[in-house]
Design goal:
This protein has 400 residues and is of the alpha+beta class. The chain is built from 11 helices and 15 strands.
Length: 400
């Protein structure tokens, strides 16, 4: 990848060294095994660095073209794919999901726990596609602890690696919602449901639709639901806390060396920083990259405004990092920074972002015409405040 000088796009090379030293400190302290970062402004990549090791056990250096498990950074991609179908007239965002997936048409809603089990009431309003994209549908994930619904998800093995999207939908159709649609925000399998919507509306499997309509047009040649055999030497180990500080852990949900049964649009993709930069640049450009138009500018604008209803002013994540949600709303697939002062991190109102379970992160700032990508492989993502720190270190180097 060809890089421009930071000064050509208003960044300071000297101040970027603070970012490099800071990230190297995470490596030297044994907190993270390896990191790849990529920064771009005004259409020019000016920083693409790697730190540490792909594997502490083998000692292989991390490389800029390493392929990462991006987990929930998949959500932005799946959301874009679904909105591409919106632009083709396949649905309106306030259409009931049940118009296309009947199994989700008449669910019960859990209001608490009684002596004989969950207390249920009828669903008052249908789940809409807008609510799926903004995580206000009433669906859950299975790892929350505040409602019996999540235990029911676990008992039903909703996130099984051996379950395809159609089967997952049938399981969801037998389970209650965690709240009435549109009355709260809850991180959930909603984007996996969006992936199933893509399949139903397009008549293609999610992997094929993404390849033909997003990855191939954008040149995202290493982004997929698995890592082919010939690329496995570019696939870092994943780590987590251990008695010695940091140690290798088992794959989350599934191995990645073969095509999966579950095509998780919410968390199943792998890819490189360079691939994700193509996606980010397309969004910065209003839906276009190198003559390939994925979305129209007004659709990008629609997606990157907060869609939280008036009664849902704020949202929180189960991992408990308030610095990730303060002063923020949520759009159609993205966290939206609305109030920089409340957020407490240098940045711009209108920036949008999200991260993945293994501590990956991306931020797109349309005000400054820039984006930043952080890749590592460490679970859980709330262990360190690395996303906020990374954002701070990026913006302190912006001088013009």
């Amino acid at each position: 990848m060809e890089l421009t000088a930071p000064e050509n796009v208003g960044f300071s090379s000297d101040r970027l060294q603070r970012l490099n030293r800071f990230l190297q400190g995470y490596i030297d302290d044994g907190k993270l095994a390896g990191i790849v970062t990529l920064l771009a402004r005004k259409g020019e990549v000016f920083h693409h660095e790697s730190f540490g090791k792909m594997s502490n056990e083998t000692g292989v250096d991390m490389n800029p073209d390493s392929i990462f498990r991006i987990y929930s950074m998949s959500k932005a991609i799946t959301s874009v794919a679904l909105m591409k179908l919106h632009e083709e007239g396949e649905f309106q965002i306030d259409d009931p999901v049940s118009s296309f997936i009947p199994e989700l048409g008449d669910l019960m809603v859990c209001t608490g726990s009684g002596q004989t089990g969950p207390i249920l009431e009828r669903q008052k309003n249908p789940i809409t596609i807008r609510q799926l994209l903004s995580h206000t549908s009433g669906l859950s994930y299975g790892f929350h602890k505040d409602t019996p619904v999540d235990q029911m998800y676990r008992d039903a093995n909703i996130n099984s690696k051996d379950t395809d999207l159609a089967t997952m939908i049938r399981k969801l159709g037998d389970l209650p919602l965690a709240y009435q649609p549109g009355t709260d925000w809850r991180y959930s399998v909603a984007t996996d449901v969006c992936g199933r919507l893509v399949e139903v509306l397009s008549g293609q499997s999610l992997d094929k639709y993404l390849s033909e309509n997003v990855f191939d047009p954008l040149g995202m040649e290493d982004t997929a639901f698995y890592v082919p055999k010939e690329k496995l030497d570019r696939f870092p180990s994943v780590y987590g806390p251990s008695e010695s500080g940091t140690g290798p852990i088992e794959e989350l949900h599934r191995p990645y060396d073969q095509p999966p049964v579950m095509l998780s649009g919410g968390g199943g993709l792998v890819g490189t920083a360079a691939d994700y930069s193509n996606f980010c640049q397309m969004m910065v450009n209003g839906g276009n990259l190198n003559g390939e138009r994925i979305l129209g500018p007004k659709t990008v604008d629609l997606m990157t405004r907060s869609h939280l209803p008036d009664e849902v002013k704020t949202f929180t994540l189960s991992e408990g990092r308030s610095d990730y949600t303060k002063g923020c709303g949520f759009g159609l697939g993205f966290r939206i920074i609305e109030n920089v002062a409340k957020n407490g991190i240098a940045g711009s109102a209108g920036s949008y972002s999200w991260g993945g379970a293994a501590s990956t992160y991306f931020l797109i700032d349309p005000v400054e015409d820039m984006y930043a990508i952080f890749m590592t492989q460490f679970l859980p993502s709330g262990q360190y405040p690395i996303r906020a720190e990374f954002q701070t270190m990026v913006y302190q180097a912006l001088v013009e």
